[in-house]
Amino acid sequence: ATHQPQREMLQTDESVIWVAEAEYLRHLLRCALGRTDWQNAAAAWGARRTWAVLDSRDPKPFLALMGTG
Question: Which of 4, 14, 55, 69 might form a disulfide with 64, Cβ 3.0–4.6 angstroms?
Answer without folding.
Answer: 69
